[in-house]
Amino acid sequence: MADLPTPGIPSLQLLLIQPDRALGASLSLALDEIGHTVTMVDRISAGTLGWVDDFIDLVILDLDEVGPEVKFFLRCLPRPVVVCTRRTDPSFAEELRPLHVSSVLLKPFKMQVLYAAVARGARLGTLR
After folding, report:
1. CB-side exposure of 31: number of CA atoms within 13 Å?
2. How far is CA 18 from CA 2, 10, 27, in A?
3. Cβ contacts of residue 2 below 8 Å, gap of 6+?
4. How many domains are there within the chain?
5. Buried-state track 50-62, b at ≥16 Cβ within 10 A, e below 16
6. How far apart are the C-alpha atoms of 72 and 50, rounded to whole Å?
7. pLDDT, tens digit (0-9, with 9 covering 90-100), for 61-82
8. Phi, psi angles (nearest 5°) of residue 39
């Protein structure tokens, strides 16, 4: 197992919400190699919030549109969120700011950027 890229960040339980299974598998493998445990789902569902509270330290969310279901999920989520997106308009990031989003990463990004965003979110901890 490789050392974590940021000293002092423990192994985390991550939830990766990624509709592209191949990309999700690649991201999961990279995060697993630095000591994290990744659970991947392809979309937000009504049942996701219940087990996030008990088992997940941080959420990584692939997101290009912020609809009502996403806003509800993010508002209720007790954990920091790293959003990965193709959206470059500043209004998108502004819309996410009050919704527990600790980082917004513009795709494509280098894995070191994701590692740093996960470390930043881990330092925030539980948001309740």
Report:
1. 29
2. 24, 23, 9
3. 33, 34, 35
4. 1
5. eebeeebbbbbbb
6. 13
7. 999 988 888 898 898 888 899 9
8. -110, 130
Pairing outcome for strands 81-85 and 58-62: parallel
The verdict on residue 6 lying in a domain is no
CATH number, domain of 91, equals 3.40.50.2300
The string of pLDDT tens digits covering residues 2-26 is 444 455 578 999 999 999 999 999 9
Looking at this protein, which amino acid is placed at residue 83? V
Q: Which residues pair with 83 in a beta bridge?
A: 61, 104
Cβ–Cβ < 8 Å for 2, 113: no
